[in-house]
Specification:
about 375 residues, 2 domains, about 55% helix, elongated, about 10% strand, 3-stranded antiparallel beta sheet
Length: about 375
């Protein structure tokens, strides 16, 4: 009787209990939220100080170098025996081990890279000061020589305009513009820090090249007596070549090579015109031959140095294989040769045109 009553009570309790669902205990959650995608934050790299040259590849933070000590030893095995009779063996020969002191190794910690070559401190700006000195002195000299005819007769005549004065003055302008750019870079101006890798980029060079290279091409056109249309064409594509290199140097991704290639496409016609202007005429007058010989000399300097410029661009702004210090040395050497030596040849080689034949007696 008692068991029957307990069974009936248990059945009644089960009927009145609330059914348990799969969502029991999660009444406050309507569902799981899908995690949102957060793009990685772009880190703008800043130049690291000399005492902390190691830059983190992920955060851009700078840290000092660390040093570790490593023991130098050679693996050895024990010969058969017991107690103190065991002897060390190395490659089958018995030997007595000697103590080798540990050696230290200093460098950047893991996950960082040495950024000391990405900037140009004051004690490494001597190439820029050298370039300034070897460009500003020719500026004064070429200007002095350019106004030589005016000092002789006190007036601007055809000899100044068509023989020596104009070419010498333009050669002085070329070196003067370059010297201003080098003065700015020597004093720590004329550059920005690329956000992508923290490397110093000297844009003052590109302003210099945009203004001076068309003037150099003008000088070459005067000596070769090229047509005005040819001069205009190579001047325009020369500016496009410089602008292409400038944009490419500001980009750290692979797209930079598209702008470098664009600049090279503009560079090839310039080389072709400079070589095509080298005319050899056996019947030309002596003055004409002398002028073309001068053109040949400045053309060779221009072609050789200008071919080296894009190579330096590849290993410096393009790939960063050389430091900013090495980049400054390379570009300074090229600028001195392509401008100062170029101008010196022009100033010392300008020749007067052949004298006009005197009119014959009137009949």
């Amino acid at each position: 009787m008692k068991f029957s009553l307990l069974f009936i009570a248990a059945v009644a309790a089960a009927d009145t209990a609330e059914p348990v669902t799969e969502d029991a205990g999660y009444e406050g959650y309507e569902g799981y939220a899908t995690p949102a995608y957060a793009p990685p934050t772009e880190v703008c790299a800043e130049p690291c100080p000399a005492e902390a040259p190691c830059r983190s590849k992920t955060t851009g933070a700078c840290s000092p170098t660390t040093c570790g000590h490593y023991e130098s030893y050679e693996p050895a095995t024990y010969a058969e025996g017991s107690g103190y009779d065991r002897r060390l063996q190395y490659e089958g020969e018995e030997y007595t081990p000697e103590y080798t002191p540990s050696y230290g190794h200093c460098g950047c910690p893991l996950g960082t890279e040495d950024s000391s070559g990405d900037s140009l401190p004051k004690n490494k700006r001597w190439p820029l000061w050298t370039g300034f000195g070897l460009l500003v002195f020719p500026t004064v000299l070429f200007m002095w020589k350019g106004f030589e005819d005016i000092r002789d007769n006190g007036k601007i005549d055809n000899a100044f305009l068509t023989v020596a004065g104009t070419e010498r003055i333009v050669a002085g302008f070329i070196c003067g513009i370059a010297s201003i750019a080098y003065l700015a870079m020597s004093l720590g101006h004329g550059y920005i820090v690329r956000c992508c890798d923290g490397r110093s980029f000297y844009y003052a060079r590109y302003i210099d090249w945009t203004l001076t290279t068309p003037l150099q091409l003008w000088e070459l056109g005067v000596f070769s007596e090229a047509s005005g249309l040819d001069r205009l064409f190579i001047t325009v594509i020369d500016v496009l070549m410089i602008v292409g290199g400038l944009i490419g140097a500001l980009i750290c991704d692979s797209e930079k090579w598209a702008f470098w290639g664009f600049g090279m496409l503009c560079f090839i016609p310039i080389l072709w015109f400079l070589c095509a202007w080298d005319k050899r005429d056996a019947k030309a007058s002596q003055a004409k031959k002398s002028k073309m010989e001068s053109y040949r000399r400045i053309m060779n300097i221009t072609v050789v140095t200008w071919i080296v410029y894009p190579i330096i661009w590849i290993v410096s702004e393009g790939t960063g294989k050389i430091s900013v210090y090495g980049e400054a040395i390379a570009y300074t050497i090229l600028d001195i040769i392509s401008k100062s030596v170029f101008g010196w040849i022009i100033v010392s080689a300008v020749v007067a045109p052949a004298p006009k034949p005197k009119p014959g007696p009137k009949l």
